[in-house]
Amino acid sequence: MLAIKLAYRNLLGAGLRTWLNIIVLSFSFLIIIWNRGVINGWDRQARIDTKNQEVGGGQYWHENYDPYDPFTLEDAHGIIPEKFQSIENYTPILISQATAYPDGRVQSVLLKGIEPDQKILKIPTESLKSDIEEIPVMLGRRMAENNKLKIGDFVTVRWRDANGTFDAADAKVVHIFKTDVPSIDNGQMWVPMQRLQKMMQMDGEATLVVASQEITSAPDLAHWIFKDHDILFKDFEELIEMKNVGGYIMWFILLLLAWIAIFDTQVLSIFRRQKEIGTDIALGMTRGQVIRLFTVEGAMHGILAAILAAIYGGPLLWLQAVKGFAMPEGTDDMGIAIADTIYPYYSIGLVVVTASVVLITTTIVSFLPTRRISKMNPTDAIRGKIQ
Amino acid sequence: MKKIEVFGNFLLFSAMLMAQIPSAEEILKKIDENMVFDQAISKSKMVIHGRIGDRTIESKAWSKGNDLAMVEYLSPAREAGTKMLKTADKLWIYTPEPTDRIITISGHLLRQSVMGSDLSYEDITDNSSMIESYNAKVLGTETIFERNCYVLELVAKKDDISYYKRKIWVDVERMLPLKEERFAKSGKLLKKTEILEVFQQDGRWYPRHMTFKDMLSRGEGTEYFINSIDFNVDIPEYIFTKAALRR
What we know:
The structure holds two protein chains of two kinds. Chain A is an alpha+beta fold. Chain A folds into two domains: 2-51 and 236-383, no CATH class; 58-227, no CATH class. Chain A is built from ten helices and 13 strands. In chain A, the strands form three sheets. In chain A, strands 1, 3, 4, 5, 6, 7, 8, 10 and 11 form a nine-stranded mixed β-sheet that branches. Chain A has a two-stranded antiparallel ribbon with strand order 2-9. Chain A is elongated, with a radius of gyration of 32 Å. Chain B has helices at residues 2-20, 24-35, 121-125, 130-133, and strands at residues 39-50, 53-64, 68-75, 83-86, 90-95, 101-106, 134-144, 147-156, 165-171, 177-183, 189-201, 204-214, 222-230. In chain B, β8 (147-156) and β9 form a beta hairpin. A 13-stranded antiparallel β-sheet of chain B has the order 6-5-4-3-2-1-13-12-11-10-9-8-7. Chain B starts with a helix and ends in a 17-residue tail after the last strand. Chain B has a domain at 24-59 and 114-234: outer membrane lipoprotein receptor (LolB), chain A. Chain B is an alpha+beta fold. The chains are: A alpha+beta, B alpha+beta. Chains A and B meet through β3, β6 and β7 of A and loops of B.
């Protein structure tokens, strides 16, 4: 208790130098928590959006389907099993390659057939209910913008049916939807399921079946393999991990600055306060007690920084969590799910872990220079002799 | 009385002409005799007319039957050394140093445009027989490019033919399709080709200068020139192997 009182007085006595250290350390605190909060927020939103709009509780893939190999699409379709006929629990999707000619330009696209009445994915498929002569198509915002298409526009689409024969028809854009999930948007045209099955001569067939969010694991069926969230989110998790590594480097640099400042302060204190150290030992303090006093002084930087960060950073972080963090233009074209505005998410665990890491490392950094005290001769120290 | 006489003569002339028109199968057979070969080595030039200018690509091709073809680009320098190998349903593209890579193209990608031209990989390596693929009927005669032509409509015999319907204008004398329109199943016109110049070699007529136009795109079309072709060759099998791509 004495050490804490003395350390506190000494710290305040050091004035501006102490406050500079504390401010730098509090910045580190804030930026670490904010950075982690943004990544956590992005992760949460992307998972929710992707589950709602693309993967549901999981997906059954036709055994030949490989989303990374477009060559497989030609053979990746089969009759939809009886089990998947329940519209409440499953949504079959048929995928086929085609070429679109928006304004005469040649553009490779994926035609995705989906039942307009489906209830699993939260995308506006009901807009595909149409009895127009042209193929009614629904596009994501990016796809529409990239191809300069608006609702009501016509675009010629050419495809090959199951036998490999060319066919072509005009499609009409009946709806453009906004989504944060680029994998249901870029280069894709959504078409009524039965229309696409007829176009491709693949009656009753699908490429994959999306299960409702209540079904998160299921046994494989003949020719249909169940893919759970671990598989479907694997790429995304790798990306988040990569972002985390980038974040760790930034924190390390910030903490390093704070550690150097504290280390420097400690070395300077021990050098300038030799007489005080000698007097303390002469008055009966053990070397261990003196080392503890100086270590507590250093470690107290971390505690004061945490208090300061909470005072000015708390409201800032709260404001950002409420108002969100607007992502720059174009970041949603990277092929991964990113919302226009990310709402950082700070968990208690995040704050506790960050505070612990900063406090423990600051204490270690404070302790290291104090080891010199144990080698000091008290008589020389009282005289102020440089040791 | 005079009018009746003129009309009678017209009917007589038309009947004589129709009587001379060979059957559609005979016409297709004759076209195949000109266009389909067992083996050939050719040199050609492709001029792609784009919106920002023209590009010229020269190439050499080794072909055997309908399934095997090897094409090597000779110019421009940027493309020189690039090779394409086509087997029954697959196609490999080799790009030389510094990439030194072989990529496989199959399925839908075979129908993609070759280097931004109006020809697909399938078009460029196609050597299939028309008579085996299509039922044909003669629609009549027309004069195009100052040549008398039979007009034929072809409808696919099988389900797996790329173009469900074609309309061709066949030179009466040389039995080459001087003009061709290829249609989708829906009836939409997809592609148009024209033969603007022909030459005779080894007893067969063959196109010298052709134009291809993807009718759905707004491109300016592609010209194709056969600079030389040798039908009397015996191409070794190793030419059509993946190993030959890197040689």
